[in-house]
Write a structure and sequence with these properties.
Blueprint lengths: L8 H6 L5 E5 L6 H12 L5 E3 L18 H13 L2 E5 L3 H9 L4 E4 L1 H4 L2 H11 L5 E5 L6 H13 L5 E5 L16 H10 L5 E3 L1 H5 L5 H10 L4 E5 L17 H16 L2
Parallel strand pairs: 1-2, 1-8, 2-3, 3-4, 4-5, 5-6, 6-7, 7-8
Helix pairs in contact: 2-3, 6-7
Bound molecules: phosphoenolpyruvate (PEP) and manganese (II) ion (MN).
The site of manganese (II) ion (MN) has 5 residues, from loops.
Length: 264
């Protein structure tokens, strides 16, 4: 496979802060919520606003996302703040709607990366796009499955690719909701040396108090960015309430990361 080296170009071309900060709520809930959090995040190091509108819940009965109407809310947030916008896509229909709404960053979630059929459908729908496409690791610690997803997208001539480490499911009792497996992401980078690597400490931790240390570890390992679930009222978030942090906590984390960097 050729041109694996071109992959960091989008990150450089965007002229974004290092680390790249993607932040926003787990789920878009209301128009006011999306617009309000966007304005708050605009005052932090955040470059890209994330919000899930189609939510892949492991078990039914929880909030499953607001649906396509949320795209309008994200568009408004982008118009008012200039932040780029990101959402999860899990099928061809999502991709078509997101492209029509000019979403800047589309990510493939852990429950989709596990399925070569789903990934191939998304890759076909995105064929040749210049949008940024980020691939979360699959739910299970399976490097070939993660690599295979990246290869399918790369083969569909999608150049602006990146990957997100969101931890791996385990039946063991650990302090994490999803175990980080740092070596798997390093092995992935050995195959695609210039693929931007982003950490999602929120879905790894499943709780707020572990987020700073996870971010620090990722920067020590030369990750290019972080994706952090952020809500102005985390306890009342409609999904993943325990792991979301406020914009001011996010701000403090990025300041502390910088201080740590300067003093080491
Ligand atoms: C999310 O980012 O809200 C999400 C559902 O993530 P994951 O696919 O990592 O579980
Ligand atoms: Mn979430």
């Amino acid at each position: 496979m050729e041109n694996r080296k071109e992959m960091k170009t989008w990150l450089n071309n965007l002229g974004l802060n290092h680390p790249l900060v993607i932040a926003g709520p787990c789920s878009a809930e209301t128009e006011d919520q999306v617009v309000k959090i966007a304005h708050q995040l605009k005052e932090t190091d955040t470059s890209i606003l994330r919000a899930g509108i189609w939510k892949p819940r492991t078990r039914p009965g929880n909030f499953e996302g607001i649906g396509a109407i949320g795209l309008k809310w994200l568009q408004r947030a982008k118009e008012e703040t200039g932040l780029k916008i990101a959402t999860e896509v899990a099928n061809k229909n999502h991709v078509e709607l997101a492209l029509k709404a000019d979403v800047d960053v589309l990510w493939i979630g852990a429950r989709s990366t596990v399925s070569p059929f789903i990934v191939q459908d998304i890759a076909d729908a995105l064929q040749g796009t210049d949008k940024i496409v980020l691939v979360k690791n699959p739910v299970n610690p399976d490097l070939p499955l993660w690599l295979g997803a990246v290869e399918r997208l790369h083969d569909a001539n999608i150049k602006n690719l990146g990957v997100i480490h969101r931890g791996f499911s385990t039946y063991e009792k650990t302090k994490y909701r999803n175990n980080p497996e740092w070596q798997i992401a390093i092995d992935l980078q050995n195959e695609f040396p210039d693929l931007p690597l982003i950490l999602d400490p929120s879905h790894i931790a499943g709780r707020r108090d572990l987020i700073f240390d996870l971010c620090q570890t990722s920067l020590d390992l030369n990750y290019n960015g972080i994706m952090v679930e952020t809500h102005f009222d985390p306890n009342n978030a409609w999904s993943d309430a325990k792991q979301q942090i406020t914009p001011s906590s996010l701000d403090q984390i990025t300041v502390d990361l910088k201080i740590r960097k300067e003093t080491t």
